[in-house]
Amino acid sequence: MMNLREIDRLVATKVMGWKILEIKHTDSGVIGGFYDDGEKLIGVGEWSPTSDIRVAWQVVEKLRDRYVYMNLTNNDDSYCCELMEQDLENSSRYFTYYADAETAPLAICLAALKAVGVEAEVNEQ
Question: Between the CA of residue 8 and those of 4, 5, 105, 108, what are the distances in Å?
Fold first, then answer.
């Protein structure tokens, strides 16, 4: 089971392909960030796709580069994200990944991780 910050970190490295920079300080805990594709440093607190739909949409856009398409639906108390990845060897075939969560951003992140072969469970939402 992971917390939201750990899932954000997995999405940054496994889905977005970013590198992690950590700077440790004994008096203030761990601070750090991610280096994006353009080598721009993004602070850890500034990028949270599990809780900010605008940031989660960056994940959706990254997946579009891999021919992954999304459906997002809501029920009474949860959201379901369905990602469909086109098979590059057979364009009429798709691989499908599902995730349910209390929020749309979290559902997007969990499905995105499944699309890259990572299963994650959340212990807080």
Answer: 6, 5, 11, 11
Q: Is the pLDDT of residue 53 over 70?
A: yes
**CB-based burial of residue 35 (10 Å sphere; 0-12 exposed, 13-18 middle, 19+ buried)?**
middle
Here the tokens at position 117 are 């072969």
Give φ, ψ of 102 to 5 degrees: -70, -25
pTM of the model: 0.84
Report the distance separating Cα 93 and Cα 84, nearest Å.
10
> Tens digit of pLDDT for each residue in 30-46?
455 666 665 666 666 67
